[in-house]
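Wait, mind explaining this?

_____
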Amino acid sequence: MELEAALRDQVGKAIGRPVPNAPIKKLKGDASNRSYYRVGTLPESWVVMVMPLDATKKSEEATKGEPPKELPFVNVHRYLQKLGVRVPRILNYDEPAGMMVLEDLTDITFEMALEGGKHQEALYGRAVELLARLRFEAERRPDPECLAFTRAFDEDLYDWELHHFREWGLEAWSGKKPTDAERAELDSTFREIARTLAAAPRGFTHRDYQSRNIMMKDGELVVIDFQDALQGPRQYDLVALLRDSYVELDRDFVDRMLDRYIDAFAAAGGEKIERGPFKDFFDLLTIQRKLKDAGRFEFINRVKGNPGFLVSIPASLRYVKAAFARRPELRKLQDLISRYVPELSA
């Protein structure tokens, strides 16, 4: 009851009038340590984000440096608004209470709006073109005050994520550890992949631009969950969207969407991107990202006690296997991993 009173009080402060009888519903959360509550009933409702008071402002996943002085959600939100990207409106942020009142975006995610694929081409086209415009504008208008420009997908972070898979995927699932020779080979190949990925030009990267982090409201695409944004290659957010563990897409469709991104980026004023090398890098990044996701889902299950993402591991591994087939120079790595993760066998 104390929490409910606090939630109503926060909304009252945000809108300038009390809501003493507003119903409260806890919303389904993601893998983070934040909780979300709907106060009121649609269409007159608000969402309150509740953050643990003892939590740092640092990303839960590996990043370097000290925790930022400002809440990353607020900081990156300001920058995206400046670029003209539709993000949820912040109505009030009570930092000491660890509560933020946001506009209610309703429950319709991009994933739900696909309706079994009926609107797939049109909706993905819009999401890809939005991403191309966002990326072009961010490359044109960097902002050192935005946290996303102070941290990056560097060699160490890519490598850490690959070893996150080794620990929570390869080793946790099989119950075995690689031999010393296998571990040396994994270390070497993972580092080589990380070095290759880190060498690509970097720019503003959402980091998790996928079907559950885009909301649909009044016909608009609203981008959420951007607080971990950083510097990364252009393909990164495309891998998150088009190799999404929650919505599987076939390769022909993915190729059309990659072409659409390339065309939209050029139309926005960016340079012409060479399709072949761009797609090759997309496949290499798919291997890195989806291995990491598969391991992360198991970590969330075993360490955080949330098994809800286990169902998405098979799709992640299917994406990795398909990408391995397009990068035959990594066959030795594939063979090694598949000794412990048979789903990845060629």
